[in-house]
Write a structure and sequence with these properties.
Layout: H1 78-87, E1 90-93, E2 99-103, E3 121-126, H2 133-141, H3 152-163, H4 170-175, E4 181-189, E5 192-200, H5 204-218, E6 225-229, E7 233-238, H6 243-256, H7 263-271, E8 278-283, H8 284-293, H9 298-304, E9 308-316, E10 319-327, H10 340-345, E11 352-357, H11 362-377, H12 395-409, H13 415-431, H14 448-462, E12 466-471, E13 473-474, E14 478-479, E15 485-489, H15 495-507, E16 518-520, E17 523-527, H16 540-548, E18 552-559, H17 561-567, E19 578-588, E20 591-600
Transmembrane segments: 81-105
Biased composition (Low complexity): 18-34
Biased composition (Pro residues): 1-17
């Protein structure tokens, strides 16, 4: 009698299941589909590694901020959850450095006065009812389904209900005393990372009772979550252990050296123009030290990231805006061009548009990134030759294996037969059969030298170039290929060389450039037969955005969300108020800076 069988393994050949073959139409010829220019990485010092082919860095450390267009919200409650996330509501961190709750609140003292100047990251939220931003916030939220609030108190109560803390009555235990100006900081004390939270309070007694219930609901003890209640605010510290001692130390340091008086924080905060609903500040060096405490690769972090990052989230008349800047010792390599936004305005009034100015020293930058990548990840070939991974079954053994398998799952094998079956089963799944053996024939792609040669070829041609892209959404194909406009204006008359290099790269993927690509002098371009009429500059939303974009912009992205909602109505249920998204990144006095805007419909 066999032992209790495990679920049966796949009984087909080692190459994988043989699914039914359905009749298909002949596959269309694969063409290169041009897309937006590669996104520069804001706030990365020269030398930061890029993934081969121009993707995100192989490591994105805590606090590193890389703005990008938000994905379209997906129906139902998605709009409410997305908006709540965008607002960042104030947090209580959980065990370690995990954040436990998110709350939106009203009135109180400057939270930065309650935090130690040595904090590595700080976030502040301000929803004071007298605050000029608050009416705009409520007005904008009312454009979304189920987000029509008369006051921030109503918004608070709704968001607290979303938190779903068992044993906590959101209205009685929390919103009854929570104010609206709050802060969260990450801080190191005595070799351990802690979350420090300051919450504005309107009722000290209610705050004391509410926090006790909150701590119990979170399953924490006093050594993990310690707090003190003052007349106008609550200060708490959360960590794995030693929260009480950390709380005392945080209060002591904040009393003599508060974050609000820190020169680096003051400089960064003063840069933000006007009132802000939320402020996010990061000291890159301190974050690197904090990363070391959590086991992250702090050496790599400190090598590539430095300075102080400041970002502010606010409401303007037509939507929401996020601005950011990195105050650092190294100049941002993406210096940009004064003509970038003007040139973008001349593109067709498409649903999606992007433009980029490639730095003249892009070859030097990419060489440094590749050298750093090699240093971090090595250059040894790690793909072994394709060989059987063991002793494959002969044809007779495979027939025997299949016969024994039936008895195994019917529990009819003798002990000897079961032993034989398990032996064959192990060999089969390790090595396959002689006719169809398991081999390590995975294609690991080009090696380091090939990558360097390919990248060098492109950077040599693209140095100082301006790239542009525009196209319209299509419900069936994602992007209508006939609506595309793609162009590269090079610094030298080498467009033909770039076309040849692109064709060579595509040939390795069995793809070709579409018909209609032209290369003459310094410009290579493709224009479809159905490009949008008019220009982006004629769109008042784009013109409004261009006026606030960095004067020296290196990259700009435009997405007409109203057009996306029309093309993909199911994905925008409850979020039809979204009108457009725009982002531009550039430099100011050597610092990387940028602005993102989310436009809403009237």
């Amino acid at each position: 009698m066999s032992s209790q069988p495990s679920p049966p393994p796949y009984q087909g050949p080692p190459s994988g299941p043989q699914y039914p073959q359905y009749q298909q139409s002949p596959a269309p010829q694969q063409y290169y589909q041009p897309g937006p220019a590669p996104q520069p990485v804001p706030y990365v010092e020269p030398g930061a590694p890029q993934a081969p082919g121009g993707g995100q860095p192989p490591y994105l450390p805590p606090g590193a901020y890389t703005p990008a267009p938000p994905p379209p919200p997906r129906g139902g409650r998605g709009a409410k959850v997305a908006v709540a996330t965008i607002l960042s509501v104030v947090l209580l961190a959980a065990v370690g450095a995990v954040v436990l709750f998110k709350f939106v609140l009203k009135g109180g003292p400057d939270p930065a006065e309650s935090f130690p100047a040595s904090a590595s990251m700080y976030m502040e939220l301000n929803l004071d009812p007298s605050f000029d931003q608050t009416p705009k916030l409520l007005e904008h939220l009312s454009k979304f389904d189920d987000l029509d609030y008369d006051s921030t108190d109503d918004l608070l109560a709704d968001l607290l209900e979303e938190s779903g803390l068992e044993g906590v009555d959101a209205e009685k235990d929390l919103s009854s005393w929570l104010g609206g100006r709050h802060g969260l900081a990450m801080w190191e004390h005595d070799g351990q990372p802690y979350a420090v939270v300051s919450l504005a309070s309107t009722d000290a007694g209610a705050a004391e009772d509410g926090l006790a219930k909150l701590r119990a609901a979170a399953g924490l003890d006093e050594d993990q979550m310690a707090y003190t209640v003052e007349d106008d605010h609550v200060l708490m510290v959360v960590g794995e252990t030693g929260a009480g001692a950390a709380l005392d130390a945080a209060k002591s340091e904040a009393g003599s050296a508060p974050l609000s008086a820190s020169a680096s924080y003051e400089e960064a905060r003063a840069w933000l123009d006007g009132d802000q609903l939320a402020v996010y500040w990061v000291d890159m060096e301190s974050v690197g030290e904090l990363a070391e405490l959590t086991g992250a690769d702090a050496d790599m972090f400190s090598q590539f990231y430095s300075g102080q990052l400041i970002a502010g989230f606010s409401a303007f008349d037509e939507g929401f805006e996020l601005t950011y800047r990195l105050f650092g010792g190294e100049d941002d390599p993406w210096t940009g061009s004064e003509d970038l936004l003007a040139g973008m305005g001349e593109l067709p009034a498409a649903d999606v548009a992007a433009t980029a100015y490639i730095p003249e020293n892009i070859g030097e930058l990419t060489s440094e990134w590749l050298d750093a990548y090699e240093g971090l990840y090595g250059v040894d070939d790690y793909a072994e030759p394709a060989v059987p991974a063991g002793d494959p079954l002969t044809a007779d053994e495979y027939a025997e294996y299949l016969e024994l398998q039936t008895g195994y799952y019917n529990s009819t094998l003798t002990a000897e037969e079961e032993t034989r079956y398990l032996e064959l089963d192990e060999r089969y799944w390790m090595a396959g059969t002689e006719e169809d053996p398991w081999v390590d024939d995975y294609d690991y792609g080009p090696d380091t030298e090939e990558i360097e040669a390919m990248v060098t070829g492109f950077t040599d041609l693209l140095a100082g170039a301006s790239l542009s892209f525009a196209g319209d959404f299509d419900a069936e194909e994602g992007m209508n290929p006939e609506s595309l406009l793609v162009s590269a204006h090079l610094a030298e008359d080498r467009a033909a060389d770039l076309q040849a290099l692109v064709e060579e790269s595509l040939a390795s993927e069995d793809a070709t450039l579409p018909e209609g690509v032209t290369a003459e002098g310094s410009e290579i371009s493709y224009t479809g037969s159905e490009t949008a009429s008019g220009t982006l500059a004629e769109d008042p939303r784009f013109s409004d955005f261009a006026a606030v974009a960095p004067e020296q912009s290196a990259l700009a992205v435009w997405v007409d969300l109203a057009a996306a909602a029309e093309t993909y109505p199911d994905d925008f249920q409850g979020a039809e108020a979204l009108s457009a998204f725009a982002w531009a990144h550039g430099s100011d006095g050597g610092d990387g800076t940028g602005v993102l805007r989310l436009y809403l419909a009237d």
